[in-house]
Structures
1.
Amino acid sequence: MKLKTFSLLFVALAAFSFKGDKKAYQLFDAKGKESNYEKMLNEAKQADIILFGELHDNPVNHWLQMELTKDLYDIKKKDLVLGAEMFEADDQVAINEYLQGKISEKTLKDEVKLWPNFKTDYKPLLDFAKNNQLNFVAANIPRRYANLVYNKGIEKLDSLDAEAKNWIAPLPMKYDANLKCYKDIFESAGGHGGENLPKSQAIKDATMAHFILKNYSKGKLFIHYNGSYHSNNHQGIEWYLKQANPNLKVFTIAATEQAGLDTLAKDLIDVANYIIVTPEGFTKTH
């Protein structure tokens, strides 16, 4: 009887062990090989600029952003600079006033164009900068100007007054329609809107690159948070950074969701230096 009981217990434990724990994420390197956080951190800390590509509503992505930022701060201290797509350049003064404790969170919400998931996903990063007296760069073009490009064409930016042009990349903007990131946008829209749609994306990338470079100096480490599509395939923001300074060490992180975490989808090989894979159907932040 004891032998039978032991055998049943062994079978139950073996079945449980075989099933294993459910992973929340898996890291892969550029070649699609399974990797880990320590390896990613060791490579990231050697960069000049890190482009942390996220899925905007993925909680694991946001948790890893916070963890990486904290660990990089332990290494770089005051030489760490933060920046993000999620804040527009014309809101920089208000962001600075919040970082300096001159305005409250309520005033920040009243004055700045915040994303719906600001409180859960981006406020912790902003507060980390505030608590550690770090710069946080509002890097994106004001949305109204990206919309102007989409609706009226890139040439319409020339008609903006001088102050408004302080919040966008210098004109004329370089643009390569053959880059995959812009070709994909053009093709997915079936050519609707002509080149205005991909150019409205390009002016965002160019502007983010512009403000990253404006706030970066040798010896610093700049970590920038953006949608993964803004830096996938080492294009988008990175392309504009390299146009200005080909010698920059740019380290990219991409994010995706898959049904399984055992292998990386073939079309994601070389999409970034490291790829975060989370399960499909993961809980969203908004």
2.
Amino acid sequence: MAFEAAVDSIDITPEFPPYPSLWMGGYGWDRRGNHGVVARRLRAHCLVIWDNDVPKVLLRADLVSVPRDVHQTIRGTLVDEGLIAENDLIILASHTHSGALYGDTRPSPFIIMGLNDQDIDAVNGTAFLITDALIQLVRDTLDQERKEVTLSYAEGEANIGFNRVGLDTVLNTVPVLRVDTVDDELFAVVFGAACHPVSRGKDDVFDGEFPAVAAELIEDELGVPALFVQGACGDQEAHDPHIPATTDLIGGILGREVVHLVDEADFTPLTGPIGTALVEIDLPFNVDTSKPSVRAMLREKYQARHDSLNPLDVDWRHADVMLKLIDDGDLPTSIPMPIQRWNLGGLSILALAHEPLSAYHVRLRKMFPGNLWVMGYANECEAYVADNDTLRSGGNLHGGYEAGWNDGDDTIAGSGCWTMSYAWPSPLKFSSGFEGGPGTAERLVIDTCKGLLGL
């Protein structure tokens, strides 16, 4: 079956002016801002695939994350303008840790860096410019001349990272979607990996990181746009040492594997039609914050932190935010998580919001009998979504960072954990067993994915 396609890209590297903020995202607790040095430009790409004249849009960008309000703005604007259907857009962040701080919600610029109101206003100014550019990119790509194309899929392997939680699970899978014209000319390549883009380290240089190195290599070798998609890399870390040379090294490994696959691999034709679905679940906290008694307990614990620390401490800033939410009656009771499925006829895509850990990739692919591409950082990213075993282990694994709690207290955000940077009051709900029981975060995610996949 022949589809139609168009592809375009833009530069979203902040420069002053017009961008009011050059604050950088990806590392918490210390202030970090760009001063004009750029290793590789930050880019955004849009690929539109028309199936029976209905556009399916993949929008990816060199951003550390997309906040929920930005996701809703982009999707809502394009739907309201009648350009796409609700289910037919996937927004993907590469999760580069050498890009712009994006938005003022999650992660919280006040908590992670202690930014003042003026700096946060500037962060929002940069976010508005990038968001407007992303929306316009989709509009412009939809207006382009279409090419009649075919789609096909293959997988390779590239060893570019390790499991930073200390588990055996390391994701080396390299999924590749190739788009060819009906004249058998390569038109575009979508490729993926599951690895935190932290390879160059915590400097103040803007960089699309190892995904950009790989994409540039692919584009130079194959002469077509190459669009990187991040996987379930919540516990997958780029190889040490984290220096610019490592960025070049692992980016080259990934890029050469994609070129090899395109040149040599047997690709599975994708037949369509493209079926899409988008659902949203609510991930529960490990304590029920809707109960007055729980809120009172949390208030007491956060007040004790607040009283024992000074405002220069991140734990104080997080406690300060939590106390205000409790006192204003605005404490959240769950974390929204969009989960999206595209079925391309020979390939199913699951696009998971937030920072999912590798266990979801492994378990879902083990359950599904066909080709399954598990994407992370999809549509919005405001939390880590750990598997039940990691959640229940708390501070025993990687200091509890991915679990969200440590110091023996699974009711409140652990010091230095994701629950602090993303401004949540408590870790996600877990049970005592290896796999999540009824009502746990893991069970909700897995059951929802199984339903979308028809399992």
3.
Amino acid sequence: MKKLISIILPIFNEEENIRPIYNALKSLLEPLEHRYDFELIFVNDGSVDQSWPILRELAHRDKTVRVVSFSRNFGHQMALTAGYDLAKGDALITMDADGQDPPKLILDMLSKWEEGVQIVYARRIDRKDSFLKQVTAKVYYRFLDVVSDVKIPRNVGDFRLIDRKVLNTLNQCREKARYIRGMVAWTGFSHAMIDFSRTNRTAGSTGYTWKKMFRLAFDGMTSFSMFPLKLAAYVGVFVIVTGLLMFAYICWDTLLYQVNYPLFKWLVTVVYIFMGVQFILLWFLGEYIGRIHDQQKGRPLYVIADEINTAKECDEARV
């Protein structure tokens, strides 16, 4: 039997780009139909333009097109999640519909997947964004790489291929604050990179406002790092050490040089030290909150990449 490839495209006010990306994908995939079956899954994320009527028309005309529409805008990551929930493919490819993710890379992704790679990232080596966006992106990814408990590949977005095994693991992770590119890296399956230069949008304007980008960045940092909760510990240690040095200096000056410090300076130094103690106590509180946060995510405790001669495998073989 031919393998099924699911291609998932989140849509938010992309009325000018839907038909071009659909035509580009169909032209690319038609020569591969002797090897694969394809399904195109469009997730309408609460668009307020003509995106939904266009998608509905495509679905009526082409049975390989599957469309779902949200009641309102739930966000890019939720649209990707809905696509993953709907997909039936052996491999799944997510990409944007704005023309910045070149469809031709799908051929390279499938080639890597056939070699046994379970996650294939499209890595941006050049991007046509504004100077400010490029700088903030570089700073954010470097910072995330330092503080994150999971090594998330730099300069990769949501243009990637994942194997069905990876998807089965992702579908067990149902946290609401979703940073899917981090969740994919967290699964730990084998991965490869395909480099490309990202072009400008084909038409229209991006739906990713600075507010949405900040929210996504914050989700990425809080979902895969306890660093924000540990800040109180670093601040507390700094305050206590500097406070003790100040207190020691005052004592030294008073005892050896008979300098008469007023009472308020002694009190200020002691209060400063106790502020550091409070920060340490906040760190302890943060650690408990962090463990509760980690527990409520509901992620599986471990991920099985393969099985040999297990009871589950024997049961599947008998079926």
4.
Amino acid sequence: MKDKAVLNESDIPFFSVDWGRTKVLVGKGSPAASDRVMVKITEYLPGYIHEKHVHPVQEEIIFVLSGRGLTETAGGKRDIKPGDVVFIPAGLEHATYNPYKETLRAVIIKSPPDND
């Protein structure tokens, strides 16, 4: 039996979302199932937007690995680039944009995890 505590992200397939593609590394639907945290890798494709939305009870962290994008909250839009960490408290309306020509790749951490 393979150790569920050590995974290689390349072994986990992406699935399509409206703004690009994503894969669940830890959480529901992953070999490393957790009911307390979700860790994903998400790729925001050039020209795509993850529209404004709210997670009423989830905190979210976006850690940018590569590419560039924009994050938006009530405070306005800010550029994000590799090494940037975006913290989104529960209940804060937010959006992520990729108006650039390269894919924005990020680690997404949510707690508690998505229910779907």
